[in-house]
Design a protein that fits this description.
Blueprint lengths: L10 E4 L6 H31 L6 H27 L5 E4 H34 L4 H4 L2 H26 L9 E2 L6 H6 L6 H36 L4 H27 L7 H23 L2 H20 L1
Parallel strand pairs: 1-3
Antiparallel strand pairs: 1-2
Helix pairs in contact: 1-2, 1-9, 1-10, 2-3, 2-9, 3-5, 3-7, 5-7, 7-8, 8-9
Length: about 300
């Protein structure tokens, strides 16, 4: 696809979050720490689930894949933001911008489906425990994983295929620290009203629909637990409330980006920090580090590592 013949814009300029040096320094430290913690936390989860045979179950299979998705998602925009914080002229190439948008939507769509799969896994485990291993077998887990990535890539490709060929003749400034689809459409030198509607339907309704489905499923699971076992309700409430917290933090900014009626608002770039840094950091904390089996498995792997070091 010959981009040069369709556009005279070869790069886009980011305005970033702030021009204050003190705030930039604070953002640099904050971003670097959270990015490092997110990557390490999710990597430890993947490594622990892979190495510990006690965690080879559908729930932890989905959790490990969620951690992989979080590491990828966190690496799409965070490293460049950290690199650009102190730069006066923050730029990204046309193709780099399109690539960033494509993978943001692809991985974001994948995470939505994975969160729905995890909610289904909890529903089967709590509401149909006798049939859990029959329903959530290895084939079903692989089906969820492959389907999530396919849906994510289709969701992203459907939007980008109509955008990549748009003419861009200036201005080329993003009042943000990353490339996003709504702001990109406003820079095109043509009427993008239909494309704006398509993005709202594609991304907005998918985000809202997935959020409503997840919240309703967790509420249904909670009512089921409370009805059948009052003693287990407090534990279920703690677990499901933590899951709902992650769902709200992940979907909240997304629903704002693609359904908010004011396209000139600057709030979206600050909310994007949650998706870029906070949510990938909270996922391992809420989903796994609060889990007793995961903590025991981590101690077991640490003990094995210490034992191997002594032998060497």
């Amino acid at each position: 696809m010959d981009v040069k013949n369709r556009s005279i814009v070869s790069e886009f300029v980011f305005l970033g979050l702030t021009n204050s040096w003190d705030i930039q320094l604070l953002l640099f430290v904050f971003s670097l720490l959270f990015y490092f913690a997110s990557m390490m936390g999710n990597f430890v989860i993947v490594l622990t689930v892979t190495l510990d045979a006690h965690l080879h179950s559908p729930m932890y299979f989905l959790l490990a894949n969620l951690s992989v998705v979080d590491m990828v998602f966190c690496s799409i925009t965070a490293p460049k933001m950290i690199y650009d914080i102190f730069k006066r002229h923050k730029t990204i190439s046309f193709r780099g911008c399109m690539t960033q948008i494509f993978f943001s939507h692809a991985v974001g769509g994948t995470e939505m489906v994975l969160l729905i799969a995890m909610a289904f896994d909890r529903y089967v485990a709590i509401c149909k425990p006798l049939h859990y291993l029959t329903i959530m077998n290895q084939r079903m887990c692989l089906y969820f994983l492959v389907t999530s990535w396919i849906i994510g890539f289709i969701h992203s490709l459907v939007q980008l295929v109509f955008v990549v060929d748009l003419p861009f003749c200036g201005p080329n400034i993003f009042n943000s620290f990353y490339c996003d689809l709504p702001r990109l459409l406003r820079l095109a030198c043509t009427n993008t009203q239909k494309l704006d509607f398509m993005v709202t339907v594609n991304s907005g309704l998918i985000s809202v629909g997935s959020f409503v489905l997840l919240v309703m499923s967790y509420i249904f699971i909670l009512f089921t637990v409370c009805y059948h076992s009052s003693g287990a309700s407090s534990k279920a409430l703690s677990t499901l409330s933590a899951h709902i917290t992650v769902v709200v933090l992940f979907f909240g900014p997304l629903m704002f980006f693609y359904t908010w009626p004011s396209p000139t608002s600057n709030l979206d770039k600050y909310l994007a920090i949650f998706d870029a840094f906070i949510t990938p950091f909270l996922n391992p904390v809420i989903y796994t580090f609060r889990n007793k089996d995961m903590k025991v498995a981590m101690r077991r792997q640490c003990s094995r590592l210490v034992h191997y070091r002594k032998i060497l």
